């Protein structure tokens, strides 16, 4: 009996070890029969258990029809609170929203009911479900502490006196990767289904049954409005998008930029579990109102820093839901920030210190892979940091992928290059565990940037290149202690398997500036965030860029350059701090802000608006 027990324990351990193979890029991380641990000199610190109280899919996938309405089971016994519900009338208005009914239901031990027949018929049937035998409901889960947890959707049918929950488009459809030829339409359904989109008299099919769908619409005419009709089961959703003009047409257009929409204070929709849905929604509405052709949003979309995949997925879902009604029409390009971190945490009870590293396996269960799962972004970035000179294992992928977090795209004569300065990010204790530093761009991404900028310099259709990155090169309020400055301490750098990178953070910042400012003529500005404020920094060669007594090579800048920081999409504010470059800062504001960039041939002007009050915060010309 004892042998059987030991034998089974060994099998279990080897299974665990197999599923949790430690990436070779870490140091002092190991696994034993008690689990994953960080090895300090005299003791082991085990990873904090992730404690999933719920599975994200249970918030929408267990809905059963009765002859009274719908029974919802969130499989979350600790959840008590209120369920608001109401129809979404897709025929009434271009940006469908749920209209909540005057009464709500109680959520008791994770279960609730929507009494459609008794409450939502007759004069409350504004979607004609009684006539059509089908409709779509929105529902809002509010926990007993008052926090809004999730805004769900459920399609239902009514036949032979029985309601039935039907496969529902719970996210999307979203317009992504817009070009002059077409776009990628993505959406998520509550059940695995086939789907199709009718556009330009052609049917674009998803042949396999799936939960997440990405359908490419191509061979469309440039610079034209294209209505599209998504069909899932008996339900149809009609929206439209405008293809980009032919590259190099040089027609005037506007795009929008923002970042940092993780949850804010104040209650209500300023924190729909992990995201400031209130400000995001205002941003999306303002961007569309201003006829922005796309929205670039670079990092900290959610609170993140979590050990639970399901909590992270709920947060991403809430962010997407907040802007969904406008994303039906124009693309939103997300970037990666420090709050997209999905971690293993090792808590040392003796010193109270936390050690945090990027979750693995990297390919399927890391911060990077979660981001890839949640968005449909261009895949033209570098592969990973594998095969750099720090790669401990050249024959094998040991690093996370850059897929969809480093990429570029163009619209007419403008290119946006999206960088990831929180790749393989280890928030605490990387000197012990190894990992990348907040704001540090590692070698392969540098090389890719160089190659990409060279390529764009030669492209005759492109006049202007923007570099967007979560972390400012010159922080001004909130992150003077880190970003690409660390209070002027160049010692900070990435560590791979115990090996410290040769270049410190300030040297690396200079290498980036050299590529972007000196070696490229088309680059216009850095669009950054992380600091929760708006400001414009004019970077000149005269601007003080080094700490006193800086011993490393100093970079000469060949021209004036700009850093537009806009992390004012709803995360808690930071005030301005004193820095060596403070006098070059213009219009530092803690108002919520959306940057609107107007491009007209060679000319680029900027307007900054408060998406809440619609006040104009700043206005200037960047390029004449
Ligand atoms: Fe950040």
TrEMBL record:
Keyword Signal: yes
Domain of life: Bacteria
Pfam families per UniProt: Metallophos (PF00149)
GO MF annotations in UniProt: acid phosphatase activity
SUPFAM superfamilies in alphabetical order: Metallo-dependent phosphatases (SSF56300)
Domain Calcineurin-like phosphoesterase: 271-493
Keyword terms, alphabetized: Signal
Protein's recorded name: Calcineurin-like phosphoesterase domain-containing protein
């Amino acid at each position: 009996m004892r042998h059987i027990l030991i034998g089974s324990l060994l099998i279990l351990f080897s299974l665990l070890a197999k599923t949790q193979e430690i990436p070779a890029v870490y140091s002092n991380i190991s696994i034993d029969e008690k689990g994953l641990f960080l090895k300090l000199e005299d003791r082991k610190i085990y990873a904090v258990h992730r404690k999933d109280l719920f599975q994200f899919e249970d918030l929408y996938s267990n809905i059963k029809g009765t002859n009274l309405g719908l029974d919802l089971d969130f499989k979350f016994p600790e959840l008590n609170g209120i369920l608001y519900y109401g129809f979404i009338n897709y025929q009434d208005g271009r940006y469908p929203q749920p209209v909540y009914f005057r009464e709500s239901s109680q959520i008791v031990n994770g279960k609730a009911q929507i009494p459609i027949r008794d409450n939502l018929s007759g004069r409350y049937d504004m979607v004609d479900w009684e006539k059509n035998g089908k409709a779509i409901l929105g529902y809002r889960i509010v926990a007993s502490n008052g926090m809004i947890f999730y805004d769900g959707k459920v399609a239902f049918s009514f036949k032979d006196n029985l309601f039935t929950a039907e496969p529902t488009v719970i996210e999307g459809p979203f317009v992504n990767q817009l070009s002059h030829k077409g776009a990628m339409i993505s959406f998520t359904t509550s059940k695995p289904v086939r789907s199709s989109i009718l556009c330009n008299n052609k049917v674009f099919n998803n042949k396999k049954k799936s939960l997440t769908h990405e359908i490419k619409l191509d061979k469309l005419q440039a610079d034209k409005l294209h209505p599209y009709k998504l069909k899932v089961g008996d339900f149809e959703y009609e929206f439209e998008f405008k293809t980009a003009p032919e590259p190099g047409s040089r027609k005037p257009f506007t795009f929008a930029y923002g970042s940092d929409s993780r949850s804010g204070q104040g209650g209500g929709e300023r924190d729909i579990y992990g995201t400031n849905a209130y400000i995001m929604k205002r941003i999306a509405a303002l961007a569309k109102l201003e006829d922005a052709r796309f929205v670039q949003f670079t990092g900290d979309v959610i609170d993140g820093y979590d050990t639970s995949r399901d909590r992270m997925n709920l947060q991403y879902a809430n962010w997407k839901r907040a802007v969904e009604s406008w994303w039906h029409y124009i693309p939103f390009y997300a970037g990666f920030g420090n709050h997209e971190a999905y971690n293993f945490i090792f808590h040392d009870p003796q010193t109270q210190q936390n050690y945090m590293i990027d979750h693995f396996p990297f390919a399927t269960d890391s911060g990077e892979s979660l981001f890839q799962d949640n968005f449909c972004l261009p895949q033209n970035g570098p592969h990973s940091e594998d095969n750099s000179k720090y790669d401990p294992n050249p024959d094998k992928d040991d690093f996370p992928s850059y897929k969809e977090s480093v990429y570029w795209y163009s619209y007419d004569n403008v290119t946006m290059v999206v960088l990831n300065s929180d790749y393989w990010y280890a928030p605490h204790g990387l000197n012990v565990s190894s990992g990348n530093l907040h704001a540090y761009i590692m070698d392969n991404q540098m090389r890719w940037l160089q190659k990409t900028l060279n390529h764009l310099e030669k492209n005759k259709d492109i006049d202007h290149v923007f570099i967007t990155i979560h972390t400012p090169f010159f922080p001004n309020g909130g992150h003077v202690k880190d970003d690409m400055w660390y209070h002027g301490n160049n010692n900070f750098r990435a560590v791979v398997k115990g090996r410290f990178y040769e270049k410190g953070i300030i040297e690396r910042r200079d290498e980036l500036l050299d590529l972007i400012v000196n070696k490229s003529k088309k680059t216009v500005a850095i669009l950054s965030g992380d600091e929760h404020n708006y400001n414009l920094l004019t970077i000149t060669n005269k601007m003080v860029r080094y700490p006193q007594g800086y011993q490393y090579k100093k970079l000469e800048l060949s021209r004036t350059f700009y850093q537009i920081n806009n992390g004012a999409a709803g995360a808690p504010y930071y005030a301005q701090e004193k820095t060596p470059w403070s006098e070059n800062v213009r219009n530092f504001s803690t108002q919520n802000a959306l940057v609107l960039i107007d491009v007209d041939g060679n000319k680029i002007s900027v307007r900054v608006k408060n998406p809440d009050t619609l006040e104009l915060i700043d206005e200037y010309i960047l390029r004449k």
